[in-house]
Amino acid sequence: MTDYAVDRQGHVRLAILRHLEASTEYTSNSSILVDVLRGVGLPSSRDQVAGECAWLAEQGLAVVTGDDAFAVVRATGRGIDIAQGVATHPGVQRPRPRL
To answer: Which one of 27, 41, 42, 50 is at 20 to 30 Å from 6 when CA atoms are compared?
Structure first.
């Protein structure tokens, strides 16, 4: 994987966690996440979003229920800490300070 691909992956993961942090009950679905990522300049396919959500779940940063066609994703407390920049995790871009 190229350096660009690795950096992009970290940004995608952070964007997902930030969206979950801002969402009611820290929850969203994969269809909305596709639109959110497109809106922040990180266009991703449904398969890519499903893969990133599965990775976040494996790391204990999110919980995924449902299936690849319609997955529901909820951030864990650790995932919220990372979205807020309180904690870090390898593979997730560290957020810049919000102004």
So the answer is: 27
DSSP letter for each residue of 58-80: HTTSEEEEEETTEEEEEE-HHHH
C-alpha to C-alpha distance for 26 and 69, rounded to whole angstroms = 20
User: Rounded CA gap, 76 and 17, in Å?
Assistant: 9
pLDDT digits (tens, 9 = 90+) for 46-92: 999 999 999 999 999 999 999 767 899 999 999 999 999 999 999 99
Q: Specify the CATH class of 3-84 in words.
A: mainly alpha
Angle at 49 between CA 21 and CA 30, to 5 degrees: 60
User: Comparing C-alpha atoms, which of 59, 52, 60 is closest to residue 19?
Assistant: 52
Q: Where do the structural domains in the chain lie, given as residue ranges?
A: 3-84
CB of 85 closer than 8 Å to CB of 95: yes
pTM over 0.90: yes
